[in-house]
Amino acid sequence: MPYWGIAMYSFKKFFATIYLWLSLFACSTTALTEVVKIEFTEFDSYSIEILHLNVGDTVEWHPVNEGHNVEFIVTPNMEALPEKSDMNEFHTMIFEEPGIYIYGCTPHLNTGMMGLIVVDNNFHNIQYANEINLSPVANSVLKRLLRKAKSMSETEIYNNRPPTQ
Known about the structure:
The strands form two sheets. This protein has a four-stranded mixed beta sheet, with helices on one face. Strands 1-3-5 form a three-stranded mixed beta sheet, with no helix packed on it. It is of the alpha/beta class. The protein has helices at 3-32, 127-131, 136-151, 154-159, and strands at residues 35-39, 50-53, 58-62, 71-74, 91-94, 99-104, 114-119.
């Protein structure tokens, strides 16, 4: 085989190896993310009230009962809150920034239908929770959720994570 043939073979082999390694890395990174399913319950609540996630994880909200949606009231970036979901519709979100995310059901927020998601166990934006105007019931629920989320140990966070989909 001429020299250029050997060089071309080595060149192709090198790039095939690089491609294989990059593909494996991409697959392993994807495998580390989770998809968590939360349902709207018949008791005007979410099936999971407090959820600890890692950056890149996804939450899916499933409308198993009618009359509910998802509306974010606190996120790490308060200037760009995600749009609220339509009533009785499936909703999904990938969490790309560390911090706390507080959401509720638009028609039932004042009665305390809310959830808290903590990404990367980071509470840097907790001051936003103190700045929102809620009903006394919703405010009480929010304080309970925040207190419980902050007091959870790493073991509790791991053990309370729902199974992956």
